[in-house]
Amino acid sequence: MEFYAEEGKNLSSDNSTLVLPALSVGNVGQLAVDLLVASLRAERIGYLDDPNVVPCIGNDAYWSSPSGELVLPLEVYESSRNALALVQQRSPVVKGMMVEFARNLANFVAANGKKHVIVLSSLEFGRWQNVDMSSGSQIHYLSSSNSDGTDDHCERQGWKRLPEYNPTQRMWKHLDDLAINTASEVEELPFEELGDEDYYASLPYAALFSCFKAKGLKVTCLLCYCSEGDNIPDAFHLADTASKALGLIPNSSQGNEGGSWTVPFSWKSVYGPPPDMSLF
């Protein structure tokens, strides 16, 4: 994985916390990172290039007067005021290469002085076996702070550790082995088929969790259950959760559309451009 800085910019070692999405149901993690980048007025400082990410290209996603600047699959942003770095991922990882991508990203993050990584992602609502909304929150977490995945700070926030996480389960153990065995470039599964118990460990956030943990980094995965459709409310919910984890206080005076979050310009056409009214 290579980092290409924009002219006159570079990664700051002072920004020790990194936030990034793991692609999943409804792209909620990506949408939440969009909200963080736009609301914090984070500055794009460069791009990451990795052979395991599907190439893509687009226009500026955040501001109302796009200047024609290109958007690439992996962009790096910084908010120095909040000592925070962010990575936005716009396209998926090549099939079968998620662990290799996670290894490369973990190596890059560790080499650039990051200490804590927060991964934002979503889970399929239909997989939620024990629905419990007594806390008023559908957020679950997974942390490397303790071997069982628990974290005191997350518990104080009222979030629940992902109950399906079991470090001794075969898929989680396989991920840990792959994360440590850097000589392996192919993610061959030693199982004939995957069962329901393998679902959670088969998702992108799990590979990132294992690889960041293997590099000795603190990693916190914040996860929300959702279904495909209009996932904007889920993105607001996950962004709110991330701001609590980071100790951020969104500035309501800077938000748009009546909230404390700045909604990116590209969201206005999330379902395509509006119809030509002259047709009517």
TrEMBL record:
Any Gene Ontology biological process: proteasome assembly
Q: Which InterPro entries match?
A: Proteasome_assmbl_chaperone_2, Proteasome_assmbl_chp_2_euk, PSMG2_sf
Species assigned in the record: Anisodus acutangulus
List where this protein forms a coiled coil: none
Q: Which Pfam families match?
A: PAC2
Report which superkingdom the organism of origin falls in.
Eukaryota
| Subunit comment | Forms a heterodimer with PSMG1.
Presence of the UniProt keyword ATP-binding in the record:
no
The name this protein goes by in its record: Proteasome assembly chaperone 2
The Gene Ontology CC terms held by the record are: cytosol; nucleus
